[in-house]
């Protein structure tokens, strides 16, 4: 069996355009993967012209050989997120095809699951924030859906420092959400790498007042590994990071320096399924929990759930699907995850467990469709009206 074609679909969305990959073989079998990169979706698709030589006429069953040749020959290795995202998308598509070929889920191809359901937390739920009181109203909707954990960034467009009024407002938002969800619901505070060390420390000390805050995510810029190590040493709140790191090489120093308690690799950024499993094993060997990042589209949700099933040190999985996906999601994919009491059952269909539908061509994005800016005022609305 040989790969004869590679198709891509850039799908419009109100907060981040998705890039879906489809590989097609000479006997008509296909596989799907995702290669969404924030603000670089058209660059990803255009890059296909440069890398088709590593894919077309290759055996999709020889995944490691295909990926190793591509990664090594690209020269920039893990310094090129556009290239790495495509590697992830194509590698996932190969495994999807293999799973379908043998009638097996991905997790069963890798030896079977260590759990039958995945604990998830809600993200993308704060999309209608016009007044500070709305944070409580939106948080209530999350709890009513059965979630036991939710994540949010209360810091507006903050960057570097927070003025006193901004700091006060951010702490008030956390207090409002806590007043609704109580101590029995986990609150995960997102920093988006906004702050310098002193501001992050000040925020972290305030977060210590809440017994249900499970982590402070990306409190400083992702390059500041020493800053995260300092915060981990002096704060009682666990530090989480890793979504912007690329391949297992980037995680090595993070683990060596005791910078984090929770690792958050993103399957697309890391270089695919095999690389995510490597990072999970590295984290486990360092007694570190793993909570994969997943803020992209539905294909990456299902692929990540398959890998969650395999990792002994999984803490929880990010879930955007119920709050930030468009109403027409059912037009483009044949299944969506169902959250029950804060958990999602494992995918059961062969491959990654989800397929694209013919109507997908009705939702192709164009160059005028923009992504939201995490550092602009009112970004938390994510373009929703």
TrEMBL record:
Keywords for the protein's UniProt record, in alphabetical order: Lyase
Domain Mandelate racemase/muconate lactonizing enzyme C-terminal, first and last residues per copy: 132-238
Highest taxon of source: Archaea
One Pfam family from the record: MR_MLE_N
Signal sequence, start to end: none
Gene3D superfamilies per record: Enolase-like C-terminal domain, Enolase-like, N-terminal domain
SMART domains to which the protein is assigned, alphabetical: MR_MLE
GO terms for MF: lyase activity
Record carries keyword Lyase: yes
Keyword match ATP-binding: no
Protein name: Mandelate racemase subfamily protein
Naturally occurring in which organism (per UniProt): Ferroplasma acidiphilum
